[in-house]
């Protein structure tokens, strides 16, 4: 990333809290601070300008700032650091912090305030920042004395980086930071949590699972955080079990693998329950059951089914429903041990049955994928005048992106078509929103590009979601962050339409009834080309498949950020 301004040289060495805080962050390898400045942090902001090895990534709105930091943390696996302005800045960021909390993003959020001395005065903009942050963070506290500043920074960084990872909050009053601070600056100690259950527990779990005829695996981001993609894949192959991602925003196993069953979704518990209703044995690893908006109140598991759950978060184990065996352990080490124990526990007929399940699943997956791709081709991917479909966009990109490209997916209703043609296959190359907060696609891609400036990064969002954090486009232009963006423009909130149709079917109503007019965003229709240009990002609009190769090649070849608005419907379409 290229800074837009020239930094002054490091000035004096007065050891105020401002300087010591930044020295602590430097000791912990922090390279970027993501923020939007405010008056109650001016001493710290001035000090940042004296640290040439810490770049301040300037955002125009706090929701976008946090999502940019979130993308950076996802792409690096290390805590990102955010600096917000008092209660108003933190308030703007709450929705994005909710997203970071539920996808377990390691992040330290700092917020400035005028000072501890003013607490009794109820001064302008005063609010209890810790109480405001607590519901959307893993840990929240406030510095009240300069000699505890660095201790609390290190504690916050440790908590953020320790599984289950997540955002943490630290209020930093300016009058505390103005004082001299003599604490020693030392790197934060993060505990090694790679523990594995004792062999007897592993062997007992393996025996529970070995006799399964219809096994299912539910996996979440804890698998990705542990680096357990290969271990999960090997266990699934040994067991002959389909894997579903629950609350998963990263690659858990290659989506091209025949045992990958897709994501559970996050709306309706009845849909999630159907995935395990037939299973006589279930392994849950790195997630909880089930992260739905409208969850099923009863147990989703078949009576008598063996349910084994593995997680580094004891709170997640048997959180909502009883399990047969719960084991606190690192997913990578535990899956490795469980695979070995399962191999020993399986009889030869059971081993052959598992292999046969893999063969049958491979045939079914290949047939289903062939049909889906054929259906995509049948919609006229190459037609000059036909309305553009997401499959055409994804198919064209598939032929242009380099192998090491990073995709940040907030396409939502268009994600199935995107991932058919651009299936995720390697860790660190694919990230997506687990849902709950709109507006993560554009800033998330910017954060990932800051983390990996040498790689092509393409972020996808919808025309609804993109409006939540479009200010991030300015950040990309200002800092010359060359991320690319594709806005899937269908003129409204298609996800709301799909969910309302589901709701109507559940109630026995006609799902084809016209949708409320406010599900559409067409009068006026948001013009992303001009919006991007106003933020300093060049853009182009594409309506037909025949124009895609040229437009997408221009986007990818452009030296800097670039946006493509893909018009995926006809005006007036109320699908």
TrEMBL record:
Lineage: Bacteria, Bacillati, Actinomycetota, Actinomycetes, Micromonosporales
Cross-referenced InterPro entries: DHS-like_NAD/FAD-binding_dom, THDP-binding, Thiamin_PyroP_enz_cen_dom, Thiamin_PyroP_enz_TPP-bd_dom, TPP-bd_CS, TPP_enz, TPP_enzyme_TPP-bd
All copies of domain Thiamine pyrophosphate enzyme central, residue ranges: 202-338
Family: Belongs to the TPP enzyme family.
Record domain Thiamine pyrophosphate enzyme TPP-binding: where: 420-565
Organism: Actinoplanes xinjiangensis
Span of domain Thiamine pyrophosphate enzyme N-terminal TPP-binding: 16-120
UniProt keyword list: Thiamine pyrophosphate
Name of the protein in its database record: Benzoylformate decarboxylase
UniProt feature coiled coil, ranges: none
Gene3D superfamilies: 3.40.50.970, TPP-binding domain
UniProt superkingdom: Bacteria
């Amino acid at each position: 990333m290229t800074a837009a301004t020239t930094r002054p040289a490091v000035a004096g060495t007065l050891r105020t809290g401002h300087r010591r805080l930044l020295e602590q962050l430097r000791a912990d390898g922090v390279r970027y601070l993501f923020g939007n400045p405010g008056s109650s942090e001016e001493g710290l902001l001035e000090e940042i300008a004296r640290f040439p090895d810490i770049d301040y990534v300037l955002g125009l709105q706090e929701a976008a700032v946090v999502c940019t930091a979130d993308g950076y943390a996802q792409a690096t696996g290390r805590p990102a650091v955010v600096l917000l302005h008092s209660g108003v800045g933190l308030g703007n960021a709450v929705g994005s912090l909710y997203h970071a909390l539920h996808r377990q993003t390691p992040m330290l959020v700092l917020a400035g305030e005028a000072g501890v001395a003013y607490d009794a005065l109820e001064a302008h903009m005063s609010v209890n920042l810790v109480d405001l942050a607590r519901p959307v963070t893993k840990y929240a506290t406030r510095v009240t004395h300069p000699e505890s500043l660095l201790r609390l920074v290190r504690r916050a960084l440790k908590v953020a980086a320790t599984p289950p990872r997540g955002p943490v909050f630290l209020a930093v009053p300016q009058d505390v930071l103005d004082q001299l601070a003599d604490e020693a600056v030392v790197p934060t100690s993060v505990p090694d949590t790679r523990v594995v259950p004792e062999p007897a527990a592993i062997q007992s779990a393996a025996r529970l699972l070995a006799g399964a005829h219809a096994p299912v695996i539910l996996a979440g981001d804890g698998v990705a955080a542990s680096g357990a993609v290969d271990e999960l894949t090997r266990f699934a192959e040994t067991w002959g079990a389909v894997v579903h991602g629950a609350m998963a925003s990263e690659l858990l196993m290659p989506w091209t693998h025949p045992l990958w069953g897709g994501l559970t979704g996050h709306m309706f518990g009845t849909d999630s329950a159907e995935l395990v209703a037939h299973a006589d044995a279930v392994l849950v690893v790195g997630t909880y059951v089930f992260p739905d908006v409208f969850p099923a109140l009863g147990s989703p598991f078949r009576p008598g089914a063996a349910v084994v759950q593995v997680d580094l978060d004891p709170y997640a184990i048997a959180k909502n429903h009883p399990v047969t065996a719960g084991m606190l352990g690192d997913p990578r080490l535990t899956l490795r041990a469980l695979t070995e124990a399962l191999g020993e526990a399986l009889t030869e007929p059971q081993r052959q049955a598992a292999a046969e399940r893999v063969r049958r699943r491979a045939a079914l997956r290949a047939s289903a994928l062939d049909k889906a791709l054929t259906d995509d081709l049948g919609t006229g991917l190459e037609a000059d005048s036909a309305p553009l479909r997401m499959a055409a966009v994804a198919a064209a990109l598939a032929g242009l992106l380099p192998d090491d490209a990073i995709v940040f997916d907030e396409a939502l209703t268009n994600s199935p078509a995107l991932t058919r043609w651009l299936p995720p296959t390697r860790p660190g190359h694919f990230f997506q929103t687990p849902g709950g907060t709109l507006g993560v696609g554009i800033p998330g891609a910017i954060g990932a590009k800051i983390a990996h400036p040498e790689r092509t990064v393409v972020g996808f969002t919808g025309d609804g979601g993109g409006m939540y954090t479009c200010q991030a486009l300015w950040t990309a232009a200002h800092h010359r962050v060359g991320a690319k963006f594709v806005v899937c423009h269908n003129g409204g909130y298609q996800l709301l339409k799909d969910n309302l149709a589901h709701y109507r079917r559940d109630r026995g109503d006609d799902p084809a009834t016209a949708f409320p007019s406010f599900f559409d965003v067409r009068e006026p229709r948001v013009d992303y080309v001009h919006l991007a240009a106003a933020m300093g990002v060049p853009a182009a609009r594409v309506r037909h498949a025949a124009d895609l190769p040229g437009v997408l090649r221009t986007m990818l070849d452009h030296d800097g950020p670039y946006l493509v608005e893909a018009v995926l419907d006809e005006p007036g379409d109320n699908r």
